[in-house]
Amino acid sequence: MKRGFLLKNGIQPVFCLPETGRYVRRAFVIDYICAMSTHERAHQDEANNVTYQRCQFAYEFARPRIKGKTVLDVGCGNAYGTVLMAEDAAEINGLDYDSGTISSNRERYKDKTNLRFHQAEIPPLPFGDASFDVVTAFQFIEHIHRRKEFIAECLRVLKPGGEVIITTPNATKSLARNPFHVHEYTFAEMKEEVGSLTPDFELKGLNGNEKVNGYYRENGKFVRMILRWDVLGLHRRLPSSWLTVPYNAVTSIMRKKLKDSVSQTTGITTADFYLQSDHLEECWDIYLIAVKPE
User: Fold this and answer.
1) How do the domains of the chain map onto residue ranges?
2) Are residues 176 and 221 in contact, defined by beta-carbon separation less than 8 angstroms?
3) Where are the alpha helices (DSSP H) in 67-209?
4) CB 3.0 to 4.6 Å from 285: which of 134, 146, 180, 206, for a disulfide?
């Protein structure tokens, strides 16, 4: 029997969870898949390690830039990165659209005196002008429709001379549509959009060493194998709401198989990623650092 597929066991359909190899009944499967498709979150486990470390790099990059400053972290999710940055910031505010996530964060981190959480649908940002020294938004902007307005809002709530740091996937490296993403940028698109709002910005690209790139080569083989079954290109044409469940199910199975077949998967750390300023189209993520004029 193969993990991750519905099977027949007498009368009752059962499912083998890819994380545990444990067989469960259909009712549990429905709850399991619906729950895993609610959000796109980079959680920390062995199968998801490369994605987690790729996301974690952004927080480590930001830490020396926020030391002793007042920070807004947009799209904080479960706040693992927000808490890390709280070690350096004078005050940090995590913002997320999901009220349940925010309530959970407030309870979990209630002893962190320099850490606050806020819930809001954005844009606009629910803060006054010149409220923060730094605004961070890591792997967030691709999830919203009013992206240019969001960048303008980030600049609005910054103090003069403050920085906004945004990371987002490089669209040219995406092999398949991610139904959680409204729009993925190219470097050229980001340059044009941000350039219309402020002249003071730079773009960098996140790349990886051979361990990282070897993992993604194997990932690409798996994605192309799956896409061969989509002869009509439905993954790019169907409503995103139809695709979140199969996308999460396939991604979970794929990452489990990659962990088992690519030896370096669990050993990759943030030290295996780096930023570069040239050959940007070869990079996995876009890093935008924009400054509000004095």
Assistant:
1) 6-36, 49-291
2) no
3) 80-86, 99-108, 147-157, 187-195
4) 206
pLDDT digits (tens, 9 = 90+) for 55-112: 999 999 999 999 999 999 999 999 999 999 999 999 999 999 999 999 999 999 999 9
The DSSP output letter for 286 is: E
User: What are the E-state strand segments in the chain?
Assistant: 6-9, 12-16, 23-25, 70-74, 91-96, 115-119, 132-138, 158-169, 201-208, 273-276, 285-291
Contact 73, 94 (CB under 8 A): yes
CB half-sphere exposure, 281, CA atoms < 13 A: 3
- Grouping H, G, I as helix, E, B as strand and the rest as coil, residue 241 is helix
Determine contact, residues 154/127, Cβ cutoff 8 Å: no
Summarised one tens digit per residue, pLDDT across range 24-67 is 444 444 443 443 344 555 566 788 899 999 999 999 999 999 99
Task: Give the residue carrying structure tokens 């402020």.
Answer: 198
- Sign of the Cα torsion 188, 50, 40, 228 reads positive
87: amino acid identity, one letter? E
d(CA 110, CA 115): 8
3 state DSSP class of 111: coil
